Amino acid sequence: MTEVLSEQMGRGSHGGALLEVDNLHVEFRTRAGVAKAVNGVTYSVDAGETLAVLGESGSGKSVTAQTIMGILDMPPGKITGGEIRFRGVDLLKLPDDQRRKIRGEGISMVFQDALSALNPVFPVGWQIAEMFRMHRGTSRADAKKMAVELMDRVRIPAAKERVNDFPHQFSGGMRQRIMIAMAIALDPEILIADEPTTALDVTVQAQIMGLLAELQRDSNMGLILITHDLGVVADVADKIAVMYGGRIVENAPVHDLYRDPAHPYSKGLLESIPRVDQKGQELYAIKGLPPNLLEMPTGCAFHPRCPYRRDNCVTDVPPLYTISGTRGSACHYWREVIDEGER
Amino acid sequence: MSDPTATQDLIKGAGEPTASPVAVRGDRRSLWRDTWDILKRRKIFWISFVMLIVFLLMAAFPTLFTHKDPEYATLAKSMEGPSADAWFGYDLQGRDVFARSVYGARTSIIVGVLATLATVLLGGLTGVLAAYFGRWIDAVVSRVGEMFLGLPYVLGAIIILGTVTPAQSNPGKAMIMAVVIIVLALLGWPILMRIARSAVIQAKHQDYVQAARALGAGPLRLIFRHLLPNSLAPILVYTTITIGSYIGAEATLSLLGIGLRPPVISWGIAIADHASYMRTGAHALLFPAAFLSLCVLTFVMLGEAVRDALDPKLR
């Protein structure tokens, strides 16, 4: 972040967290109708904190991230309400050129599939160096040196020799490391990782998660980890926001959620993780299909699939009930869900 | 097309000796290195490459090929056939056909290359802008392009050329060529615009463009670093083939008496001048026609070879 910008943005002088998403609404206007992808999402991340955003495809988790980055395709996308405050300043109201300065330097992002997220026609070292040349005006030679250092930092073996290699010459895990190197090149304060391990196999997943956690500790970044995999987040995240149908249905410190989920959907997700002690038994699955964003169910979006459903679930949209200072659940019957424990 | 130094880097990276063990394993391959590897194995590429060199030399240094003056006319020798003195014989005005054919290469190649360059600049720029900004810019560019495409080539050329440089005017060599170049580009840019537009639209939705945006790249950087380098292949293929077809088009217009005309020396003019002497003095017609055909063939073959090498779908 440049000096001018950080002064202007009043570093540390505002009350809230480093990054706050406040009641965000995003729609997609398509020929088939209006798809409400994000319906009032609120979450926040502070420096050094890891927030895991959990949800299945179409739950709005990636759209929220794209909106924070300002890379949502508009049209068809349209932000219909809410604020995204970075250091207290609403990003949605900033002019384009100021927003661009924040991308990469203030808030940065790691994409799911690093092969397609790296430009195929340039060597990886060139692409990392480009970050310094683009934002800092570093000379070609210095930028390349810094690129090699970064490649070392994300543990790419023989970084010096491989700096001129092209993306397709690297394995999936190595590519993701390069993507991470690009994302952290300018020491961003917030790093958004959109399913960073989905395209990788399990052993590599653990390495990449470990690397992200380590980098975060070293530089005290705020990390938003978007995933649909509960197994990935348990060790890394501080808190979890579970999304369903474009809303946050439960947020909680990570251990509370694992111990006793307060929303039927989070509970269903936890129960559908395969476990060694249930070997031979049928694996639990949440019945039904994710909601159609063009025709959201009335009331609670989860009611057609919910085992706790009552009549008022069909008509009344549940607010995010406060369970404790740090926990919330958007279920009319959250008490019942917590009390019942595991089935 | 993007940043010449970046391309240099690319070429340097690709050409470095594979000394380190890593390089041996992963042998550095870029798209251009790949393309070159395929090209150099193709006979058609080498044939057209040698022919291209010959034609380029002819255009640049015609005196290497003939010491005769193409303008020197001896009417007594009008339509005299080939001999040891004049290999291709003499034309209607008693000028050396070989010398005129050699000097004609310069005009044809200048017109072909410059008209293609103008087409690529005009069509490429509009195509990239239309694809990148979309919405109304795309709509306007596409519709205007369709209007130009709807114009029959020869008819459009007759109208423009007949108005700007009518037969009775005497605008001078450079002006005659410039107008033909502009007309060719003006009537040909929509095709390149479409190619560039579709290539950029395809590249635009790739993750790496989104990623570059997310890491703070501005519109210029996106276009020149990410979109253009990744849409260069189809543009390049069409460009190579276009040079050949423009050389042919120039000859067609000259034959119709509306393109180039004396004092410019060109194959098309020579063909036009002697078209009615097919039976009595075929040499004055056939030799320039052969030069023209070979030159067009050179660029078309080169274009074919480049397309084969760049388009993975045809491999």
Automatic annotation (TrEMBL), chain A:
<dbReference type="Pfam" id="PF00005">
    <property type="entry name" value="ABC_tran"/>
</dbReference>
<keyword id="KW-1003">Cell membrane</keyword>
<dbReference type="InterPro" id="IPR017871">
    <property type="entry name" value="ABC_transporter-like_CS"/>
</dbReference>
<keyword id="KW-0547">Nucleotide-binding</keyword>
<keyword id="KW-0813">Transport</keyword>
<keyword id="KW-0472">Membrane</keyword>
<dbReference type="GO" id="GO:0015833">
    <property type="term" value="P:peptide transport"/>
</dbReference>
<feature type="domain" description="ABC transporter">
    <location>
        <begin position="19"/>
        <end position="270"/>
    </location>
</feature>
<dbReference type="InterPro" id="IPR050388">
    <property type="entry name" value="ABC_Ni/Peptide_Import"/>
</dbReference>
<comment type="similarity">
    <text>Belongs to the ABC transporter superfamily.</text>
</comment>
<dbReference type="InterPro" id="IPR027417">
    <property type="entry name" value="P-loop_NTPase"/>
</dbReference>
<dbReference type="GO" id="GO:0005524">
    <property type="term" value="F:ATP binding"/>
</dbReference>
<dbReference type="GO" id="GO:0016887">
    <property type="term" value="F:ATP hydrolysis activity"/>
</dbReference>
<dbReference type="InterPro" id="IPR003439">
    <property type="entry name" value="ABC_transporter-like_ATP-bd"/>
</dbReference>
<dbReference type="InterPro" id="IPR003593">
    <property type="entry name" value="AAA+_ATPase"/>
</dbReference>
<keyword id="KW-0067">ATP-binding</keyword>
<protein>
    <submittedName>
        <fullName>Oligopeptide transport system ATP-binding protein</fullName>
    </submittedName>
</protein>
<dbReference type="Pfam" id="PF08352">
    <property type="entry name" value="oligo_HPY"/>
</dbReference>
<dbReference type="InterPro" id="IPR013563">
    <property type="entry name" value="Oligopep_ABC_C"/>
</dbReference>
<dbReference type="GO" id="GO:0005886">
    <property type="term" value="C:plasma membrane"/>
</dbReference>
Automatic annotation (TrEMBL), chain B:
<feature type="transmembrane region" description="Helical">
    <location>
        <begin position="109"/>
        <end position="132"/>
    </location>
</feature>
<protein>
    <submittedName>
        <fullName>Oligopeptide transport system permease protein</fullName>
    </submittedName>
</protein>
<feature type="transmembrane region" description="Helical">
    <location>
        <begin position="144"/>
        <end position="162"/>
    </location>
</feature>
<feature type="transmembrane region" description="Helical">
    <location>
        <begin position="227"/>
        <end position="247"/>
    </location>
</feature>
<keyword id="KW-0813">Transport</keyword>
<dbReference type="Pfam" id="PF12911">
    <property type="entry name" value="OppC_N"/>
</dbReference>
<dbReference type="GO" id="GO:0055085">
    <property type="term" value="P:transmembrane transport"/>
</dbReference>
<feature type="transmembrane region" description="Helical">
    <location>
        <begin position="174"/>
        <end position="192"/>
    </location>
</feature>
<feature type="transmembrane region" description="Helical">
    <location>
        <begin position="284"/>
        <end position="303"/>
    </location>
</feature>
<keyword id="KW-1003">Cell membrane</keyword>
<keyword id="KW-0812">Transmembrane</keyword>
<dbReference type="Pfam" id="PF00528">
    <property type="entry name" value="BPD_transp_1"/>
</dbReference>
<comment type="similarity">
    <text>Belongs to the binding-protein-dependent transport system permease family.</text>
</comment>
<feature type="domain" description="ABC transmembrane type-1">
    <location>
        <begin position="105"/>
        <end position="303"/>
    </location>
</feature>
<feature type="transmembrane region" description="Helical">
    <location>
        <begin position="44"/>
        <end position="65"/>
    </location>
</feature>
<dbReference type="InterPro" id="IPR025966">
    <property type="entry name" value="OppC_N"/>
</dbReference>
<keyword id="KW-0472">Membrane</keyword>
<dbReference type="InterPro" id="IPR035906">
    <property type="entry name" value="MetI-like_sf"/>
</dbReference>
<dbReference type="GO" id="GO:0005886">
    <property type="term" value="C:plasma membrane"/>
</dbReference>
<keyword id="KW-1133">Transmembrane helix</keyword>
<dbReference type="InterPro" id="IPR000515">
    <property type="entry name" value="MetI-like"/>
</dbReference>
<dbReference type="InterPro" id="IPR050366">
    <property type="entry name" value="BP-dependent_transpt_permease"/>
</dbReference>
